[in-house]
Amino acid sequence: MEICDKYVVLRDGNMVSAGNVKDTSIAALSHDMVGHDVRMDALEQRAARGGEVLRLEDLTLEPSYRHINMQVYAGEVLGVTGLLGDGRSEVFRTVFGDMNKYSGRIFLSGKETAIRSIQHAMQLGVGYVPRNRKENAIIKDMDILDNGTIITMKQLRRFGLISKLRQRAAFNKQKEDLRIKMGKPSDPIGSLSGGNQQKVVLAKWLMAKPKLLVLDNPTQGVDVGAKEEIYDIILQLAGQGVAVVVLSNEAQ
To answer: Which residues pair with 56 in a beta bridge?
Structure first.
């Protein structure tokens, strides 16, 4: 808005609007980008805070971070921000069992726990949506359905085999709840937009019903409409008593 004279908005392969920047607004451009009005005001909700879910005491892993102390409660959204490379991702990758050569103490639901691996962290109710979606969150060679249910494959088994009926039913519920725009479940995950890929990543963790969900830059690379919907999902999770940690480069 500050440096451009003219604008063009493309959506779904069509030009939906064009003109002089001085004749439009951020709200109008956002509407044209996503096809509906986008909330422009700050999103705020009072937390009905429950019991302590996570406590870190003097957590240290050189050279990534040192002497970290923090608490996270059920029903709370905790935001952690800073400069790129500040170590925040490494702190919560440690909680998720991805970096286990740490010192200090980790408490989950009031009980001290030495997290040994990612599988151990998942068993304890910890979920993690990583920052680099294309590198670490989706499996490019798998379809949408398998990407969206991979965390809960064990629960979907029957007589040692994955029940496709149960798999589709579980995913379809998340598809409706998260309003994922997609073609067939058998389509490749790469056929989706960035925002819808991120919703599939969220879907697989929501099916796992974590007590603590860490979202590392969850709105990176998504459009303004998907960003709004992801924020709404975060508030819904907190309302259900999940402890949510949002790591972001955006302080506001």
So the answer is: 70, 106
Q: Give the CA distances from residue 250 to residues 40, 83, 209, 218, 220, in Å, rounded to whole numbers and listed in that order.
A: 16, 9, 27, 11, 10
Q: In 3-state terms, what secondary structure has residue 190?
A: helix
In angstroms, the CA 92 to CA 13 distance is 39
The predicted pLDDT at position 33 comes to 87
Q: How far apart are CA 18 and CA 7, in angstroms?
A: 5
Per-residue pLDDT band for 110 (boundaries 50, 70, 90) equals very high
Q: Is 126 left (phi over 0), alpha (psi -120 to 50) or beta?
A: beta
Distances (CA, A) of 179 to 43, 138, 239, 247: 20, 18, 19, 23
Spatial separation of the C-alpha atoms in residues 54 and 46, rounded to whole Å: 20
Tokens 């969900």 -> residue: 213
pLDDT in tens, 198-212: 889 988 898 888 999
In sign, the C-alpha dihedral spanning 214, 219, 222, 227 is positive
pLDDT of residue 13: 85
113 φ, ψ (degrees, to nearest 5): -135, 130
- The H or E element that residue 90 is part of is helix 88-95
| CA–CA dist 185, 155 (Å, integer) | 19
**DSSP element (H, E) containing 158:** strand 157-158
Instruction: For residue 177, give the amino acid letter.
Output: D
Hey, what long-range contacts does 9-13 have (CB within 8 A, 24 or more apart)?
A: 9/33, 11/35
